[in-house]
Design a protein that fits this description.
2 copies of one chain form a homodimer. The first copy, chain A, is about 45% helix and about 10% strand. The first copy, chain A, is an alpha/beta fold. In chain A, strands 1-4-5-8-9-10-11 form a 7-stranded parallel beta sheet. In chain A, strands 2-3 form a two-stranded antiparallel sheet. In chain A, strands 6-7 form a two-stranded antiparallel sheet. The radius of gyration of chain A is 19 Å and the shape is globular.
Amino acid sequence: MPQFAPLQNDTFLRALLRQPTDYTPVWLMRQAGRYLPEYRASRARAGSFLGLAKSPDFATEVTLQPIDRYPLDASILFSDILTVPDAMGLGLYFEEGEGPKFERTVRTEEDVAALRVPDMASLDYVFKAVTQIRTALNGRVPLIGFSGSPWTLACYMVEGQGSREFHTVKKMLYSRPDLMHRVLQTNADAVAQYLNAQIDAGAQAVMIFDSWGGALADGAYQAFSLQYMQKVVAQLQREKDGVRIPAIVFTKGGGLWLDEMADIGADALGLDWTVNLGRARALVGDRVALQGNLDPAILFAAPDQVRTEVEKALASYGTPSAGHGHVFNLGHGISQFTPPESVTAMVEAVHDFSRRQRAA
Amino acid sequence: MPQFAPLQNDTFLRALLRQPTDYTPVWLMRQAGRYLPEYRASRARAGSFLGLAKSPDFATEVTLQPIDRYPLDASILFSDILTVPDAMGLGLYFEEGEGPKFERTVRTEEDVAALRVPDMASLDYVFKAVTQIRTALNGRVPLIGFSGSPWTLACYMVEGQGSREFHTVKKMLYSRPDLMHRVLQTNADAVAQYLNAQIDAGAQAVMIFDSWGGALADGAYQAFSLQYMQKVVAQLQREKDGVRIPAIVFTKGGGLWLDEMADIGADALGLDWTVNLGRARALVGDRVALQGNLDPAILFAAPDQVRTEVEKALASYGTPSAGHGHVFNLGHGISQFTPPESVTAMVEAVHDFSRRQRAA
């Protein structure tokens, strides 16, 4: 393992661990993305999204672009949430202008029986990227590693692609819960190994993206998504070289289940924009920190309106007190159509207003 | 006004008004739809969806099909949620296999200034259908009238079609809230007039479908969707010929806002499947009845599994007591791919189990 430079800005990690901070740290989901002209240039050179994500050099280049442009408080590995099922041999691919797809699906008893936790060596390109990015960051801000949640991976593995209604995977869930649980257990073990290897490679926090947990019915969410995120969190190494590695869990559309999510052992919960930050804070108390939750569509408005909405969100959370923590973020990935100057306004507003809150 | 036959089954209306019932009444959103072979035959004869919806004869024919096939406790007008903006002159149309679209959009200051509550005479085909259906029902079950919510209509009017992210309408909301409020006020007045005319024509309950309220951020939902549904409800005639006309409000994805929704004057709230029925009942208390909320995907499972899930939902609500009411439904429209025998299993299970609950 290389020796990494000491961390110069630990505001993000402190907020996740509910320790006092001078201001509210901020980063953006999908911050290395198509709204940045420099990203589009890198992608054109790489030829494709997977060309970027599978090359440690390109992944390092684009991960650092938003860090160079904005005073963000965290960086996140540039990768895809579906690397694990790809390594299981399902054949991840992208067609221009569409979401991710798999060449092979997991639907039958035989498909499920053949499913294995992949050899982590096949994901070495990810771990190399993590080490290279951490080295290139040179201690400026912490690096977040991530994966899709067991349920979200299963949605893509069964459907073969994204879906509006998830008929195929839900039919399996209700008709053959035994098969569904076997897929999810394999996914949970694979995701845990994958995140632990990212931590070994240099990730300083990890995040589990449960993009499709919100499509589940109450009851099914707890049994088929939350339970398996808990199994992941339970297997994570939570300390590396004597430093705590915080884990963030984010279920898009999971606002109704925050109380249960707060008890699975994660350090922080991601929130989408339907959640009231103040109410969520009161609900989770000092069990977890919160991360979120501006509607990405707000970034289409003028800078003054962006600032107003940022201040409303920070005021709704209130001033962090002992045992509470807030990391500012969007409630979903930033849109490719966002004007880059909106992000400038947002990041400045978060830093300025949150410092003033603490001074008041 | 014609004299209608006396109502033989008022279980649905009683449950909405939180009065005791012998069993839990049940109907399905989009119950007259493509999963029924007889519907597909009618649609083939009519030539198109709008051909069905704009003909009182066809609308009557398909509205009664599920009532003839299943022992449902309510019927719902066969129509579209977007008839009002169509009557505003925006030109509703459907392309095969796609959702509704409008020929003209409402985006500029001029577009908004030109917007008017449409002459209800242009919607006469709807009111004729209501009267004809109510007559054909001959008192078997009550007839529900409906409309899209002011916000949901605005989404389609501004975007020109459905959307995943609602960038255009949300940009208007955050950049020009003044324009957005003018559109919504016009929509609220139009929807109120439209529902009142349906009540005059024979509708015995009305439902407001807020399909896209769940896309809004907390705070924006209250200001741009809920407020205008309240304005609709406030203008509704709530009694016709001495009989109470219950109003149901349904925001898909609105589970986090039930407490506020319970106070806008509606008799009942629709729930999607992410909501826990027992918790929702405790939250709203005796302010409103509840309607919902099985995941439509459950109907892809075998009849035994359908029955199990119905029993779990009814057990979660618990036995209705004085001042509480529950109408069983799906949490969203029934899928066109549903096996019709799943509906048989569902309706029988609701009736059987809810009678046993009350007897226990």
